[in-house]
Amino acid sequence: MKNLIFILILISSFSYSQEIALLKYNGGGDWYANPTSLPNLIKYSNQTINTNIKSKPATVEPGSPDIFAYPFIHMTGHGNVVFSDAEISNLRNYLLSGGFLHADDNYGMDKYIRKEIKRIFPNNDLIEVPANHPIFQKPNVFASGLPKIHEHDNKRPQAFGIFVDNRLVLLYTFECDLGDGWEDSEVHNDPKDVREKALKMGANILNYIFNN
Prior knowledge:
The protein is α/β, with parallel strands linked by helices and 212 residues long. It contains seven helices and seven strands, in the order H-E-H-E-E-H-E-H-E-E-E-H-H-H.
């Protein structure tokens, strides 16, 4: 019955509103990094792909039932991520009920978030999302997959995912830093074309969530 109520809340959210959220997690990592990124992505998405997302994202904690009100939850940071057992269970229920989590490594999150993702889905492996997946094809085409935004360790950008019944429920972007590319231009002084690539990729993620 509890899961059914959560599913009905999520369906109601999909049907009557478009609102996204930032995940406030424990462990000491700076979950609050990139404060201008989601507002800028929302504005870009509303202007270019006809979404109708509220301009200010919510902030939600992983153990809260409030997560079921948001079809898309974004998390970022440079450091440690720790979920309690109750938060793991809540996140798993959320993702299995139709929710979507995007974890964007802001450089330094990798070794921590991979362990927590494995706790959420112990029987599912993170696999690289192929370049022909719809998330890279609509409405903007990224023929080579995830674009490179920031260099970090000079490795290629990679998008990893957890798939449940062929549905991408969790996206982990590594060696890319999409969130930095979504920030106000003066924050990182990224060239206009780099910011545009980041915003287009972000719009693709939102398009996938709201149309699949």
